[in-house]
């Protein structure tokens, strides 16, 4: 009685397709929420501080930059929190070795940039990572 020899390979193929589809769904990000954030939020403040410090560490400029205007902040929550931040930054009178708050440069050393940062953040654990950065002259 050889009525169904093709059933076993068909069943294995169906299982394989289901496993591939399931693993693909697991890798996709599903946003739980997307929210505009207030600049007064403590997690935003700590993330802005981190972004500024990291930008200044990695910049080739002799002077530090500081945020002068926050244009947009949005949080996206998936299995973690991402802040998407757009800011304007200006070169200050402080060299990189100085850690104080300084005035912004005027005259021929004036430089302003607009930056977008995507930051993985867990501020309650003081864990941050810049996922994407794009800065252009303003």
Automatic annotation (TrEMBL):
CDD domains: CY (cd00042). The keyword Nucleotide-binding does not apply. Keywords: Signal. Residues 29-136 form the Cystatin domain. This is Cystatin-11. Residues 1-25 form the signal peptide. It comes from the Eukaryota.
């Amino acid at each position: 009685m050889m009525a169904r020899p093709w059933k076993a390979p068909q069943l294995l193929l169906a299982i394989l397709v289901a496993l591939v589809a399931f693993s693909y769904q697991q890798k996709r990000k599903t946003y739980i929420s997307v929210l505009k954030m207030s600049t007064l939020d403590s997690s935003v403040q700590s993330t802005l501080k981190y972004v500024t410090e990291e930008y200044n560490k990695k910049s080739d400029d002799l002077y530090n930059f500081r945020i002068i205007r926050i244009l947009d902040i949005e949080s996206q929550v998936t299995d973690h929190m991402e802040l998407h931040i757009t800011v304007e930054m200006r070169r200050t009178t402080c060299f990189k070795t100085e850690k104080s708050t300084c005035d912004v440069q005027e005259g021929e050393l004036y430089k302003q940039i607009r930056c977008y940062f995507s930051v993985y953040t867990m501020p309650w654990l003081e864990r941050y990572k810049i996922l994407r950065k794009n800065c252009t002259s303003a």
